[in-house]
Amino acid sequence: MTRVALLISGGGSNMVALARDMTGDHPGRAKLVLSNVPQAGGLLKASALRIPTAVVDHRDHDGRLPFEAAINAELDSARIDLICLAGFMRILTPEFTHRWAGRILNIHPSLLPKYKGLHTHRRAIEAGDTEHGASVHMVTGDLDDGPVLGQAVLSVRADDTPATLAERVLPLEHRLYPAVLRRFLAGDTTPVTIDARD
């Protein structure tokens, strides 16, 4: 059974979707939810799901390397095999990603390679895109740049705002990430596609 850590910074809705799927015959189990934000709402949700939690506040550390060393200490203590970033709003160093190479996934709200980084919904609308969505990818030392393991696609509507587009993409993330993780842990890296276009 693969021991999975879920890293969050906020409400943890993708974390909840992943954790709820990791039951029964699933090859993984959520063994730790870690946040860099002590007040993150997802920590309470994790506790309600009976998943151990940890906080490593980046503000308590002098730089990214000491911060990541503290994260690694928590991951090692929980004997973690795989990391899923689920709204973890810190950029990880190449040293960290190298240590976890092949064992760290992320979900990003765009159709990668488009719109790496922040404000993806606004950028898609401003570019006049007719399609948008979310991607799950392997994490490498470059931001939002690893191999894509799955994408969910929807149509951008004429009246969409960044807020409405985000609201419509999020439920697709909740479907996509668990589907990718289940297949990945079974050794299948064939990209998953969810087509929710109008």
From TrEMBL:
PANTHER family: PHOSPHORIBOSYLGLYCINAMIDE FORMYLTRANSFERASE. (6R)-10-formyltetrahydrofolate binds at residues 64, 89-92, 106. The active site is at 108 (proton donor). N(1)-(5-phospho-beta-D-ribosyl)glycinamide binds at residues 12-14. Keywords: Purine biosynthesis, Transferase. Pathway: Purine metabolism; IMP biosynthesis via de novo pathway; N(2)-formyl-N(1)-(5-phospho-D-ribosyl)glycinamide from N(1)-(5-phospho-D-ribosyl)glycinamide (10-formyl THF route): step 1/1. The record marks 144 as: Raises pKa of active site His. GO terms for molecular function: phosphoribosylglycinamide formyltransferase activity. Pfam families: Formyl_trans_N (PF00551). It catalyses: N(1)-(5-phospho-beta-D-ribosyl)glycinamide + (6R)-10-formyltetrahydrofolate = N(2)-formyl-N(1)-(5-phospho-beta-D-ribosyl)glycinamide + (6S)-5,6,7,8-tetrahydrofolate + H(+). It comes from the Bacteria. HAMAP family: PurN (MF_01930). Belongs to the GART family. Residues 3-181 form the Formyl transferase N-terminal domain. Its EC number is 2.1.2.2. Catalyzes the transfer of a formyl group from 10-formyltetrahydrofolate to 5-phospho-ribosyl-glycinamide (GAR), producing 5-phospho-ribosyl-N-formylglycinamide (FGAR) and tetrahydrofolate. This is Phosphoribosylglycinamide formyltransferase. SUPFAM superfamilies: Formyltransferase (SSF53328). The lineage of its organism: Bacteria, Pseudomonadati, Pseudomonadota, Alphaproteobacteria, Rhodobacterales. InterPro entries: Formyl_transf_N, Formyl_transf_N_sf, GART.
